[in-house]
Amino acid sequence: MILLGAVVLLPLLLVLTLWFYYYFHSERYLKNVPGPSALPIIGNIHQVGATEDALQTMVQFQKKYGRIFKMRTMFDVPSIVTSDPKLIEEILKSYQLLHKGVAYDFMHSWLGTGLLTSADEKWKKHRRMLTPAFHFKILEGFIDSFNQMGEILLKNLEREVGKPSFNVYPYIALYTLDVICSSSMGTNINAQEDSNTEYVHNVNEICRIISERSLSLLKSIPFLYTFTSDYKAERQVLEKLHQFTDSVIANRKKELLESNTDQDDEDSDFGIKKRLSFLDAMLKFKEDGKGISDEEIREEVDTFMFEGYDTTSSGITSILYCLSIYPEVQESVVEELNSILDSESSEVNYQQLQEMKYLEVVIKECIRLYPPVPLIARRFGQDTEIGKYKMNRSDYKTCCRRVSLSKGSRHHP
Q1: Domains of the chain, residue spans
Q2: Distance (Å, rounded) from C-alpha 200 to C-alpha 198?
Q3: Kindly report the CA angle at 260 between 254 and 263, in degrees rounded to 5?
Q4: Residue 331: CB atoms within 10 Å
Q5: Which residues, 6 or more positions from 369, have their beta carbon under 8 angstroms from its beta carbon?
Q6: Which residue ranges does UniProt annotate as crossing the membrane (predicted)?
Q7: Measured between alpha carbons, how far is residue 29 from residues 32, 169, 179, 303, 393 in Å?
Q8: φ/ψ of residue 143, rounded to 5
Q9: DSSP-derived 3-state class of residue 52
Q10: Which residues are CB-neighbours of 305 under 8 A, at least 6 positions away?
Q11: Does domain 122-369 correspond to CATH entry 1.10.630.10?
Q12: pLDDT tens digit sequence for 139-198
């Protein structure tokens, strides 16, 4: 009996000892940083980690403690939260702070270590590879596709005409999914015309699972997560998502091999460049004579899908919301569009987009007020100064910094 008690108590004692050491060691560097009181082990998770109002809670913390404050997440992992634009710029420009926050780990099962979740040399290599894929000349090649999908969106929105209000997000989400699949994979999934397709369902399901897991205390612990229904659902959805992307990659590689690739992608009829999808750019990428593996390509295609789908849908929805509550701004946008667009055609060309200066200002202002990505996380890998506070080098599990792009009185009136 005594032996059994020792077996149970000794590991517990060891855990408590390590926790006390870790807590007070990190507190040496954080003691002068303002912030809310934290509970042992769970930190401030009970206040922000498992609620849908987490962002609003952090905004309240900012008002109370200032533009830089401390928090503790699960197992008392310390976090520094800042909404200071200069500090945010410094953090995002740093090539030494490329390791993402713990919450990004929840995306690895779907995205692997693509540009969003990777770090160090792989991040730098893939950044070099992907930057040319976003050149305006490549994006210009998709204008016709954007016009076609925009026409479908307008047709679908007509069913809501005359109603006092409606939820526009589902329409925008399906439109965005069509655009992302076309530009990233060169594939049409017709989400707006058939929202019940398997791929649409699977993308929505994996986004839901990742989002809910990031807000759940239980699901954030990997061991406990394996016993949840979402874990089983995630396995099933991921298998289908990866199969879909793999098949698109394989088919596109076959098409490129069968086509005359020596023509430098020129259209034989018109002598102009064919549109180059995000997938095509990666398949053609070479560095030191070597390309990248199909698995790496899949990671980046899936990453592009995840980053573009949710953020763009949220961003466009926020812009439409702002236009609805500021009718005078909406009217000014309409006047500008009427002065630029051809009344006899519903299509928009690239040059006309460049002339929409007022609309561009409105879009940027809406994104400033309602950023689609309100939180960005980085982990310390070396001694770092955040404002006037010095943070010690820490391993990847012990120190996380979160950046809140929330509104503040000086920069965000």
Answers
A1: 122-369
A2: 6
A3: 135
A4: 11
A5: 318, 322, 407, 412
A6: 6-24
A7: 7, 44, 47, 35, 11
A8: -60, -45
A9: coil
A10: 180, 181, 184, 203
A11: yes
A12: 788 899 999 999 999 999 999 999 999 999 999 999 999 999 988 888 889 999 998 889
